[in-house]
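Batch manifest, entry 17 of 40.
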Amino acid sequence: MGTKYIPVILLICSFCCTGLLKAQDKGIYDTVRVYAYITPEGDTIGESWLPSVEVIGKLNAAGRKYWAEWTRLRNAVYVTYPYAKAASRIINEINLQLVNVSDKQMRRKIIRSREKEMKKQFTDQLTKLSVYQGRVLMKLINRETGNNCYEIIEEYKGFITAAFWQTVAFVFGSNLKQPYDPGTKDAEMEKIVRDVARMYGYPG
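Output type: structure tokens
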């Protein structure tokens, strides 16, 4: 190798040495810890977590209608559920009193006695319910007792009384025979009932 190439070689070597020294210096991001993510194929790549971002959008007309109806239903269940539980308890008590009573006059006496008690206890509160809340209450009574309101009235007060109140219910756009269907039609109500039951401390 000729002496004329020596300066060139020295220059190249000096650049390499300078680069090596710089490479050994630590940069400001050299010690940043980066999590590793192993892909299903076995590759390892860097992983980091971005801060969460809250995105708020406006409800459209359908969304507003849904939540308005849901809120109305939840409020109605909240108000009427204790009455449905009370009705279930009283009906069970009446049935226990009547189980060994065959005399019609005595049965009527027992029923009227409990009817007076219920009117005294609940009349003021029930007359404050709206028609919508009344419909919800009838469904909840069906849920708690297994019988619709028409069947309950007919059992204790007779067919004529049941038919009369059924007519009144129709006038107000309701139906004493309306069923409670937690699987489909009343699925939303069932979810709310379970939530409200826990809130009141009732077993669902």
